[in-house]
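ESCALATION

Customer reports they have been waiting on this structure for their group meeting. Please prioritize. Original submission:
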Amino acid sequence: MKEKNAERRSFLKNTALLGFGAPAVLTVGNKVFAHANVPIEDINKHKTATTQAEDEFSIFITTDLHAQIHTHDEFFWEEGKAVYKKRGGLAVLKTMVDQLRASHPQNILYDGGDYFHGHGVASLSEGEALIPLMNAFNYDLILPGNWEVVYKKKKMLYDMGHATAAKICANMWHKTNDTENGTLIYPPFWIKYIAGAKVGFIGYTDHLVPKRQSPAYSEGIGFTHATDNVAKYIKYLKEIEGCGIIFVVTHMGLAQQVGLANDPRIEGADFILGADTHERVRVPIQGKYTKVVECGAFGSFLGKLDIQVANGKIANYHYELMDVDPALYPADKKTLALIEKSAAPYQNEMNQVIGYATTPLVRYFVLETPMDNLITDAVMWQFKPDIALSNGFRFCQPLAVPENKNQVAITNEFLWNMLPVDSTAITGEVTGMQILDWLEKELENAFATDPSKRFGGWFVRFAGMEVNCTIGKAKGQRVNWVKIKGQALDKNKSYRIVACEREGDPNDTLCRIEKVTNPVATNTSLHEVIKSYLATNSPVAPKLEGRTIATDQSPTLLTQLQGTTYDFR
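Update from on-call: job pushed to the front of the queue and completed.
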C-alpha cells in the first residue's frame, strides 16, 4: 500500500496536481479528500458509512442548456416533418430532477457545459445571473463547455468558481509563453464512492475552441487533444486509485466523441458522456472501445443512466433520454422565484417585441436554416453587398407559430437567443477563388473524414450565394458549383462581402476568410441590423430556399455524424 501511495504522489506531482488550488478530489458522502494526502486504506474506512446497500446508482445528465431559463418551443423530427412542442424551463427541470433524485437516492447530477451563455440575461450579466440557478440544483459535477470562454478567461474562472459543484477538465491549461503547457486550470478527474463502486470521471472540452470561436475569448488558455492524456488518466484511475467504473465526460461534439470511442487510447472507459453538438442520442452508440451518449440541449432533455454494480464494476445499465415536459412536471415555485429575481434587471428589455414571423424560426438543419436565412437577409438588406455571411451556429431553440394563429412575436429575448454575442458587421472584398477555397475549408470543418477535425458548428450560412456540393467527396473537392446573385462564380472577380466580427482575428480575416481586402467596420451591430430589418419588413417568412444543396444529403440533414445507426429526432 505504501508503494501505491508513493505512485499516487509521484503521478499527481508530475501532472501538476499537487498544490492545486482545487485538487482532483474524491467524494465520499459529505466528506471530500485530496488524493495526494489521504491513504487509500483511510478512504476505504468510509465506504460502508457513506454508500447504500443497493447495488444501483443513477447519473442524471444535463448539457448545453445555453442559459435557457424559460419553457420554450422545441423541435422534433417525426415521420419526416418538423413538429414543435413546449419543453424545458429551469423550474420544470428542477421539479423533474428533484423527483428523480428522490426515487433514485444513489445518484450523480452532472452538467456537460455551455451553461452560462446563450440567453440575454446570461449575456448581459456575463453569466453571473445563472450562478444561483445552477447552485439551486446542487450539481455534483460540471464540465466547462466551449462557450464558457465567451466572457474571457477571468470571467470564466469567476462564473465556474462560484458554482458549488466539482469542476474537471484534463485539457484546458493556463497558457504560458514557453513551449511547454502551463498547469491545468481545473482538476482532470473526479472520483466518487457510490453503490459499492469507486467511480472515476475524466473531463475534456473541444481542443478546437480557439479556431471555431473568436480567438480573443480563449486568450490565456491552452488546449490539447483528449487523446494526448486520456490513456494516462484511465490507467491511473484504474491501477492506482482502484476505480472499477470510469466515465469520460466530454464537450467535443458527437462526431469527435464517436471518433474517440473508436480510438484505442480510450480503452478502459465504460462510457463517454458527450455534449456540444446538441445531438439527442436515444440509444448509446457503440464504438470499438466504449459507448457514447449525448443528451440534447436547452434544458429540453435530461439523460438518465442507471448503472447496476457487481464487484465494483458495471454489471448492467439502462439509458434513457427523457423530455423535460411541463405537462408532466409542474414548475418549482422556488426556482421560478429565483428566475424572476435573476432576470428582473433585464426583463423589460427582453419582453420588447421587435417584429413578427409567419413561419417557424428554426436552426436545427446542418446545411441551411430559416433562422440564419433571416439573419443574412437582414444583412443583405442593410448593406447591399454581393454576399452576406454568418457562422454555422448551433445555439437557439426554435420559435414556432402557435396553433390557430398566423404569426408569432419576435422579442428581444429571442434576438439574444439567436445572437447572444452582438457582433459588429464588417465589410470587405474577396476574389471568387478566395470564396471557393473558403467554402472547401468550411465543408471540411463540418464533414472531415477524421472526426477530430470537425468543428462543433454546422456549415456556414449566407445570402446572395448558392452552393452545390457533394459531402462524400474528398477534402478540397466537395464544391461542384457556386452562383452569386444568380451568376456563376468568377474566380478572378472581386466580390463585396459582409460578415460579423470575430474578436481576436486579424483585421483582414472575416468569417475565417483570410486576406480580405479593404476591411471596414460598419459600426453597426447585428442586433441593430435585425431590429431595423424587422421594423421595415415584418412579418417575415423565412424558409429553406436551396442556398446550400448537397447532392448526397437531404436539405433537412440534422446531424454531421455519418456511418452509424444514429438518427436525430
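Sent to customer with the following note: The mean pLDDT is 90.
Escalation resolved.
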